[in-house]
Amino acid sequence: MHIEIKNLSKIYPNGFAAIRGINLEIGNGMFGLLGPNGAGKSSLMRILVTLQKATEGSVHIDGLEINANRDKIRPWIGYLPQDFTFFNKLKTWEFLDYSATLSSLDIKRKDRLKKVDQLLEQVGLLDVRERLANKLSGGMKRRLGIAQALIGNPRLLVIDEPTTGLDPEERIRFRNILSDLSQQDITIILSTHIVGDISSTCHHMAMLHQGEVAYNGAPEGMIAEVKDYVWQVTIDDNEFTTLKNRYPVVSTIPIAGHWETQLIAMEKPHPDAINIAPHLEHAYVFFMENKLGISLV
Prior knowledge:
The strands form 3 sheets. This protein has a 6-stranded mixed beta sheet with strand order 6-7-8-3-9-10, sandwiched between helices. Strands 2-1-4-5 form a 4-stranded antiparallel beta sheet, with helices on one face. The longest helix is centred in the middle third of the chain and has 15 residues, at 168-182. It folds into 2 domains: 3-84 and 149-217, 3-Layer(aba) Sandwich (Rossmann fold); 224-291, no CATH class. The chain is built from 10 helices and 14 strands. Helix content is 32%, strand content 28%.
């Protein structure tokens, strides 16, 4: 699948410009859309899944303009919104079966129920198929959301902030599910403000800031820009207070009354500081501070 976004803008009736002049091309595999809350990610997602129209610009999916071809394109799309909800009185399997009915999955009931159980097994929920959906844990609910997004055999899967509020174990489980899905013949757009979701799953990404594309390319390209500016140093409380007031700190680990600190600095921030290999979270902090002018100190 090929998605082409040209000069896309969304201005709401109150005059707020959620996205402005976005140009992106997205192909098969996992595409990450990174940015802080309020960057315009959700507005872009809702346009891509045909839930709202852009003010200006166009989106073509495999050559078809989405507004002129909604009826044809919608069956191609599976969507997991940030505010995913379900009917509280339905069991887990019943909700997924109902979702299959809504998606117009044109197969016999016996085959549809087989499909339901296959998806429940795929997302690790087969053993709780009889549990009421509203009794599932937060992570299980998100996994059920992925299952309902997949029930119609979509060619495009759009996922908005899937791991917000999940504990580390569930976050890793969810990322592994997405990684497995990305190996199939499907396009996945993952929208998130959590850097780890992008770094562990996506080979191509875009970063949004105030409704505009601030970066578009491979995560490695963004990481390369911060190569000489990531430092690690172990310091006491007083030194830590001084450094955190001067430089953006990415992480701290307490070690025997001291702090093992990773930070971003254009010059050596401390006599004992050493350069370390950067990862995407370092690059994100560097970009926010030095490219976009957002102070994190």
